[in-house]
Design goal:
2 copies of one chain form a homodimer. Chain A has helices spanning 15-18, 50-58, 60-63, 73-84, 101-112, 127-135, 152-164, 189-202, 257-265, 274-285, 288-314, 339-349, 378-408; strands at 34-35, 95-98, 118-123, 139-146, 149-150, 172-175, 205-209, 234-239, 251-254, 319-320, 328-332, 351-352, 354-355, 368-372. Chain A has 409 residues and is of the alpha/beta class. An 8-stranded mixed sheet of chain A has the order 2-9-8-7-6-3-4-5, sandwiched between helices. Chain A is globular and about 75 Å long. Chains A and B meet through helix 1, helix 2, helix 3, helix 5 and helix 6 of A and helix 1, helix 2, helix 3, helix 5 and helix 6 of B.
Chain lengths: 409, 409
């Protein structure tokens, strides 16, 4: 039957689907591969939810039936309470339950974007967000980051220049202000406020994706962008993936009720699973989530430190930023080292990593790696970075040889 | 904060979102309303999945972690086996796990449709499918049904006329051949084969949505359309909503692997929940699903009979088709009775029903109701139809009065 699909001629696929084919599934990666690529949760810390799963399964008429479009009211209330701890004035009608934050972004794209509409993103940005925006056929306005987060002065200049030139103005800005994926940078309070002002002035909506806020090893939090929002122009995206378990696929949209109702109209999935929602309500209420986050922080701090030390030892001449939270390290490679080639060689050495290229919506300004310290044990992290170091050394020595050859010839 | 969203000017919303606002959520309908509208499962028959939920929750490193993009291999294998029972040559690589059949349709739209692309649907068709297609900005080619299902000769004529006129040709056909929602009509084997031939001849893809196939009270099944497919042009959509529990939100796409990989690329939800998938694998393997389907059939046959009898008693001069399976009755109202007005009056009498208008992608050719016998008990069904009868009688008596007035004047 396999040859038959060639009978579907290329013009039958939608434009957005023509070059977008997922890799084959069904096989798991080789036994000895160390995972430093994906933002998986640390398996040893996954919470025990057996009693909550039992209790939820017993509430059959709620949990096995179609759920309400907006989510269980108990969960909407619990999420609103969770957000109020961060200074966000949320109540039930601000909350739409979705199947993870990515689902929320996808829905927001449907409600705001036509093909070619410009969207503001940081450079770099979250790789899956870039993919979702690309599938929505957005065009990009990439704004650099510094140690305070997205550079709002560059953003203002770009917006003003577009307005002066009569170009189409961005409808959305997507960013992750707390422990940004991939850089780990937290946005300063000044910049957050400034973003909200720019949103009002230049008429765009801010999507604030905030999965890592609670995974903080050091330092003090600043309020979410949404806490500075008086205009209703900020849409918060949240998820339990990093504070409970990514497999449960429960997230939320936090927005003005009029936005929530438009997004809900495009949620054609028959309601998020009420069994999972009821499990999450219990885990929020019985404080298991808070305990889990505390455990995770103490473990992942050790992971981060192990990875930083290993990078200093095995990846000479790279630049790595030490984040105060989140799951990732962002590594700048020296000139001449191609990140994609390094990823390929690292896989051969037995370690899986992510090329920084995937974290840019447009052309990357340099060569970077994203390394996750969340999933593997400290011992595996050290071994993984060692393997990465071998791949790195092999590229560097070839580079030196070829430079020497050029110099000599 | 509520006034603020008016600050988002209308041109900022995407076209597809401008007139699409979900009703307010958070409130449940009044205590005494009898539900004959939505296709909910019968609450008394929802299966006991407590032991499966416990066992799945214990497999933490699988079930609480991000799941594989295509779904758990065990579930893909179990679904393929389930489909092979119906004569479909499916294996693991044909199956993509999704969050219900609606999710599968939504993904297929992304992969095939550009705005304005024509899609073939039956008249009437599944109301949520019409909504999803509308959100994909499809245009419609509506084809009438008779007792053998979608009229393939009308379809052929319409296709040929479009081709002769040089009009854009449909990319997709959507239909539900077994116990069609809302009409309950099963498509004949001859028509199924003919559809596949037309798909090849006129270069479109068939989406076969098949939730009700196993809910058969009488008669013999014919093979699914997919079983006639030798061209790879049929995409099967399945779900456990009607054979296990709608709340679990697990469905599948069954297609040529090349189509599956393109659809998977647009599945940006972080993988369907592996906890739910593991629960479903167990329920398929331990035969609880088969037992559940057998129970459901014997219960819903009684529901259907109760509703048919009540309609004959309380809705004189209507036409109702007796289906051999599925969840719904399709009722044709006499001329002059507006279905939307009847829905409003029925709600006041304390019964919730669906206007047939919602089941047409284009202008309805008459006035219809969709009634679900799945959710309410036989006693409630009888009482609900009695209430509906009062609403119906009140409209008819007003109609007669106004006709008499016209005749007399």
């Amino acid at each position: 039957m396999n040859q038959t699909v060639n009978q579907i001629p290329p013009y039958r696929w939608a434009k957005r689907a023509r070059d977008s084919v997922a890799p084959e599934g069904g096989t798991t990666s080789g036994g000895d591969l160390i995972e430093l690529g994906g933002g998986f949760d640390f398996p040893d810390a996954l919470p025990d939810i057996v009693s909550e799963a039992m209790a939820a399964a017993e509430l059959r008429s709620e949990t096995l039936q179609y759920g309400p479009l907006y989510g269980l009211n108990d969960l909407r209330d619990a999420v609103a309470e969770y957000l109020r701890q961060d200074g966000i004035a949320a109540t039930r009608e601000n909350i739409l339950v979705v199947n993870g934050a990515k689902h929320g972004l996808d829905l927001a794209c449907r409600v705001f974007l036509e093909p070619e509409d410009p969207v503001i993103v940081a450079a770099p940005t979250y790789l899956m967000a870039a993919k979702i925006l690309r599938h929505a056929e957005a065009s990009f306005v990439s704004i650099p980051q510094d140690e305070e987060g997205m550079d709002t002065e560059v953003l203002r200049d770009r917006l003003q220049a577009r307005q002066d030139a009569g170009e189409s103005m961005p409808k959305l800005l997507y960013d992750m202000p707390d422990f940004h994926n991939p850089t780990g940078i937290p946005m300063s309070a000044v910049r957050r406020r400034r973003l909200v002002d720019l949103a009002t002035q230049y008429d765009f909506v801010i999507i604030e994706d905030d999965p890592y806020r609670r995974i903080r090893f050091e330092g003090e939090a600043v309020p979410p962008i949404k806490a500075f929002d008086e205009s209703g122009r900020v849409i918060g995206l949240g998820t339990i993936s990093k504070i409970l378990a990514p497999g449960l696929r429960i997230g939320w949209v936090n927005a003005d009720p009029a936005i929530v109702r438009r997004i809900a109209a495009h949620k054609s999935d028959g309601g998020s699973c009420p069994l999972l929602q009821r499990i999450v309500v219990q885990l929020l209420r019985n404080r298991k989530m808070d305990q889990h986050v505390a455990t995770l922080i103490s473990l992942l701090r050790v992971h981060r430190n192990a990875m930083i030390d290993a990078i200093h030892e095995h990846l000479p001449d790279t630049l790595v930023r030490v984040p105060n939270g989140g799951y990732f390290l962002w590594v700048r490679l020296p000139p001449g080292i191609d990140a994609d080639e390094l990823v390929r060689r690292a896989a051969k050495e037995g370690v899986s990593i992510i090329s920084g290229r995937l974290c840019f919506a447009e052309e990357p300004p340099g060569s970077f790696l994203r390394l996750a310290y969340s999933f593997s044990t400290p011992a595996d992290i050290v071994e993984g970075v060692k393997r990465l170091g071998r791949a790195y050394a092999s590229i560097r020595s070839e580079l030196e040889t070829s430079i020497n050859r050029i110099v000599r010839s």
